[in-house]
Design goal:
Strand content: under 5%
Helix content: over 70%
Oligomer: single chain
Distance between the termini: 58 Å
Number of helices: 5
Number of strands: 0
Radius of gyration: 31 Å
Largest sheet: none
């Protein structure tokens, strides 16, 4: 700005225009970065965990018990059958409880699952040695339980 006349020169306007465009571009870039970061954060949290299939859960147990005890193919097949039956019963009970319209509490679910767990454990006791079953109950089974997210 010319202080004597109070007018702004053309070259001064060009510089201000370039500065304005630069600031606008930086703001657009910053806004884009915030949007991308926000989307990534929301997406990373995901929704509720997906229920794994019976086969996936049996495979996990199979691998854990095979590496822990090396029971042999015949016993592993028997163990797989025990857990397949157990997980199918568990899924059926869960479906029945959820179909009531209200979500049951964890304690209610565990109470309903007790007979299936007892049946599974009785069958496992016949296949595993006393020491192996103890290791299953004390170490392997607790480690396989899904960890609840803390909010």
């Amino acid at each position: 700005m010319n202080s004597a006349t109070g007018f702004v020169s053309v070259s001064h306007l060009k510089i201000n225009n370039q500065l304005f465009k630069t600031v606008c571009m930086k703001n657009k870039f910053l806004l884009l970065a915030i949007l991308v970061f926000g989307f990534a954060t929301v997406n990373a949290q995901g929704g509720p965990p997906q229920q794994r299939t019976v086969e996936e859960r049996v495979k996990t147990v199979h691998e854990k018990l095979d590496s822990a005890f090396k029971p042999g193919d015949a016993k592993l097949k028997e163990i797989d059958d025990i857990f397949t039956t157990y997980y199918k019963a568990q899924d059926k009970l869960r479906e029945e409880m959820m179909s009531g319209g209200t979500r049951p509490t964890r304690e209610e679910m565990m109470e309903k699952m007790k007979p299936a767990v007892t049946e599974r454990d009785d069958k496992l006791k016949k296949v595993l040695s006393e020491e192996q079953f103890k290791k299953w109950k004390d170490e392997i089974e607790p480690a396989m339980r899904p960890q609840r997210r803390q909010q």
